[in-house]
Design a protein that fits this description.
alpha/beta; Purple Acid Phosphatase, chain A, domain 2; 4-stranded mixed beta sheet; 7 helices; 9 strands; about 15% strand; globular; EC 3.1.4.53; metal-binding
């Protein structure tokens, strides 16, 4: 299986023209060259699809992202939407939906255990704590409504990819639900149970290989929770992880 990782596009009204008319054409050309040599099976966007919540793109920033970025790639490679995966980044947060009283409470009281409790409570509902990620997650849910073996939640999502060599489990971690412009590392808890939740699905499906996808590097997460996540990745047999947040060239992975 060959995976293309793309990250931190930060689509906005300021860069959409250049992306459409210059960079995307070059990207698609490179992807086609890779694809003809060894087929691309998955494209994974590891967060920050849009810039600052996509507010400069008006009412439907992710539909705009789909039209401008996803559709040309899918069309050129002759793959399906089901072969495009995504997770939110801190710029996918709608800052207008951050409730100040809730944010003050979370910044001063949230713990590792508290984050795990919230993650489970928010899996199928939106509250004042996670409304900031609602626009992204609703787009994801609609985008993958017909994707086989896709398990959606407002927290983590997961998908199992069937290959000739065996099934591959991909854990799509939502490590940005807690983000705000003032968030400090010591207050950045993501809810490590997201990994346990997906690992259970993979165990029941007897996947041959598991991949964890994050936006933030673990160094950007609370130190205690970082250690917990590292232990889970090892103990639950995640073969490797993908991270976004750092602006670098597109990455190709074969598994």
């Amino acid at each position: 299986m060959r995976i293309v990782q793309l990250s931190d596009i930060h689509l906005s009204s300021n860069n959409i023209y250049d992306l459409e008319n210059y960079y995307l054409e070059a990207l698609v050309k490179d992807l086609l060259a890779f694809h003809q040599h060894n087929s691309v099976d998955l494209v994974i966007f590891t967060g920050d699809l849009v810039d600052k919540g996509g507010n400069s793109l008006k009412e439907s920033p992710y539909e705009t992202f789909k039209k401008v970025i996803i559709t040309p790639i899918v069309s050129a490679l002759k793959i399906t939407d089901s072969q495009v995966l995504m997770i939110p980044g801190n710029h996918d947060i709608d800052r207008n939906q951050i409730e100040l009283k809730s944010e003050f409470y979370l910044a001063n009281t949230l713990t590792r255990d508290g984050a795990n409790k919230l993650v489970n409570e928010m899996k199928m509902s939106f509250t004042e704590d996670n409304n900031r990620i609602k626009r992204f997650k609703e787009f994801e849910k609609e985008f993958h409504k017909n994707t086989p073996n896709y398990v959606y939640s407002n927290s983590e999502s997961s998908v199992i990819i069937n290959t000739i060599e065996g099934d591959i489990g991909i854990s799509l971690v939502n490590d940005s639900w807690r983000c705000s412009s003032d968030l400090q590392r010591q207050n950045h808890f993501i809810g490590s149970n997201q990994l346990f939740n997906t690992a259970k699905i993979f165990s029941e499906a007897k996947t041959q290989l598991n991949v964890a996808v994050f936006h933030h590097p673990l160094e950007a997460i609370n130190e205690d929770e970082k250690e917990e996540i590292e232990n889970i990745l090892k103990s639950k047999n995640f073969s490797f992880s993908l991270f976004g947040h750092s602006q670098r060239d597109c990455k190709m992975n074969s598994v």
